[in-house]
Specification:
16 helices; mainly alpha; 360 residues; disordered N terminus
């Protein structure tokens, strides 16, 4: 009989354990927030390596040297980073031009919004804040700050490249653990494999649907004559990685600009198109492909966006789901006694039994 089955077994009381757990979680969150300038690039590099890792499998099957597979993974990760950085820089440049060209219309639109909401009985001070938030200078500052964070906090881009290279070199070891470790920690290793495979599928599905949404939204805005369709297409693609609130972040700027250049009719038409496209693809279709892989509850997904954005900034908002999956793996992954914790976080089905070996 184990100690926890004995009535008089020594140990901490349950409330004490809960308080210590909460204190440890708070300390961990503070550590992540304090080291976000270092952890942000590391997290981004790890995500890029997980995305690129399947590229080495066909090379390994064909008997290519290990360094060839590593080089392919690192090159793909670097290529994705360069393309994303170029898209963000180009979009920010065009966004600045749009603001300078349509500054007058945007200011009038801000006044129109303020008058409309005041007529509904909203507080004038609150409406002044809302109107100020869509002023050209405020929009440019917000876009620049977000773009800077997405690019790795400026000089930290170097660390993203370096981390990606080193993680790519170590990835081959993680895919082939020693036989004794695989037997002794089969559940833990299987949980890690579930995490990497699920994260890779999550990025793949989100990228495909994000690209589809971006193309449709961009073409619709171009056909309607809304300025900067490329900028808003890039924004729609990027915000597709932000669960729950990504749609709102992606639709507000083009709707505001549409109201400024074409009136409320054009703005409402843009909003209707965005709602139709995004709800159909992201709410009705996309979850069918990614839901069984992620296995996170809706509440936990939303809370994860808030928490990781607070801790890591824009990088945390884009990688909120993979970071939450990784945290769940670290805390309860492979633990046969953590079934309740798995269930309450959204994992409704037990993990598959380990392939070979005995449970750890």
């Amino acid at each position: 009989m184990s100690d926890r089955e004995l009535p008089g077994a020594p140990g901490l009381a349950r409330p004490t354990r809960i308080l210590l757990t909460l204190a440890a979680a708070g300390g961990a969150c503070w550590t992540v927030w304090a080291g976000r300038s270092i952890l942000g690039p590391l997290v981004l590099a790890a995500a890029l390596i997980i995305i690129a890792l399947p590229a080495r499998r066909p090379l390994d099957r064909r008997g290519a040297p290990s360094w060839v597979g590593t080089l392919a993974v690192v090159a793909i990760a670097w290529g994705i980073l360069v393309v994303l950085a170029a898209l963000v820089l180009l979009a920010l440049g065009q966004f600045g031009l749009i603001l300078s060209d349509y500054a007058g219309q945007l200011e009038k639109s801000a006044e129109s919004f303020e008058s409309f909401f005041q007529s509904l009985g909203f507080n004038s001070l609150s409406m002044d804040a809302v109107a100020g938030a869509i002023q050209p200078s405020a929009l440019l500052t917000t876009a620049f700050n977000a773009g800077t964070q997405l690019l790795g906090l400026g000089t930290a881009v170097f660390f993203v490249f370096a981390y990606a290279m080193f993680l790519g070199m170590d990835a081959v070891r993680w895919q082939n653990p020693p036989a004794d470790l695989a037997e002794a920690s089969s559940r833990r290793l299987q949980a890690f494999q579930h995490f990497t495979a699920g994260t890779n599928r999550y990025f793949l599905v989100n990228s495909i649907f994000g690209l589809i949404v971006a193309v449709i939204d961009g073409l619709a805005l171009w056909a309607l004559g809304v300025p900067g369709p490329f900028v808003w297409a890039v924004l729609a693609f990027v915000t597709n990685y932000i669960p729950n609130i990504g749609f709102v972040l992606g639709v507000v700027p083009p709707v505001v600009l549409a109201v400024a250049v074409g009136g409320w009719g054009l703005g409402l038409l843009v909003l209707a198109i965005y709602c139709l496209v995004n709800v159909t693809l992201q709410v009705l279709i996309q979850p069918r492909f990614v839901g069984e892989t992620v296995r996170l509850s809706v509440t936990l997904t939303f809370v994860s966006v808030v928490v990781w954005t607070t801790l890591l900034g824009a990088v945390g908002s884009l990688l909120a789901v993979p970071l939450t999956l990784f945290a769940r793996f670290l805390i309860i992954g492979g633990d046969p006694g953590a079934r309740f914790a798995q269930w309450i976080t959204g994992d409704d089905g037990p993990e598959d039994p380990p392939a070979g070996g005995t449970p750890a």
